[in-house]
Amino acid sequence: REAMDRKYVMITGASSGVGKDATQYLNSLGYGIVLVARNEKKLKQTLDTLEGDNYIISYDLNDLYNIESIFKQCSDNGMKLYGLVHAAGEADLIPIRVANMQDVNRSLNVNANSFLELARIFGKKKYSVDGSRIVVLSSIEAVLCEKGHAIYAGSKNLLETYAKIYAKE
């Protein structure tokens, strides 16, 4: 099918873990996938497991200020998205006593703040169809509060808060 005829879903964190699993599952249902992650080699490996026309975009979600470029690439290829799955995340084990603000900011940006920008841009009519859907993947760590997981748990808890408020808006 041509890009305009196929239903496409963008998946962040598509190169590994749950994001990769979601990529393969949705592709098996017939969706075209826009795979987004920072590791191009892993993206290509995942792409090779998929059927039909799918696209990879190597992008580090820590760069919050150029996220729209991901959507512009889709639009330039004739795609309007039917869904967005935000599965990207970094789960570094960093005890509070050794954490620094770079660790905190990176976790907040990749795990939570990138969702705000992705959702804001995804909601524009030029990038997604009416009735499109967003799925946000969090972690049980957001509620377990285990030692060494303060930064990760906090960022996933923030992600859940963002998603709940976005859904109401």
Largest sheet: 5 strands, parallel
- Whole-angstrom Rg: 16 Å
Number of helices: 6
Please indicate the percent range of residues in DSSP E strands (runs of 2 or more).
15-25%
Helicity range:
40-55%
Low-confidence stretches: none
| Mean of pLDDT | 94
Task: Output the helix-strand order.
Answer: EHEHEHEHEHH
Coarse morphology: globular
The tally of strands reads 5
Taking strands numbered 1, 2, ... along the chain, how are they ordered across the largest sheet?
3-2-1-4-5
Pairing-aware structural class of the strands and helices?
alpha/beta
Q: Distance N terminus to C terminus?
A: 34 Å
Topology of this structure?
Elements: E1 8-12, H1 17-28, E2 32-37, H2 40-47, E3 55-58, H3 68-76, E4 81-86, H4 101-122, E5 128-136, H5 141-144, H6 150-168
Parallel strand pairs: 1-2, 1-4, 2-3, 4-5
Helix pairs in contact: 4-6
Structure description:
With 169 residues, the protein is an alpha/beta fold. The chain has helices spanning 17-28, 40-47, 68-76, 101-122, 141-144, 150-168; strands at 8-12, 32-37, 55-58, 81-86, 128-136. A 5-stranded parallel β-sheet has the order 3-2-1-4-5, sandwiched between helices. Strand 1, helix 1 (17-28) and strand 2 (32-37) form a beta-alpha-beta unit. The radius of gyration is 16 Å and the shape is globular.
Summary of the model, kept short:
The model has no long low-confidence stretch (mean pLDDT 94). Helix content is 44%, strand content 18%. It has a 5-stranded parallel beta sheet with strand order 3-2-1-4-5, with helices on both faces.
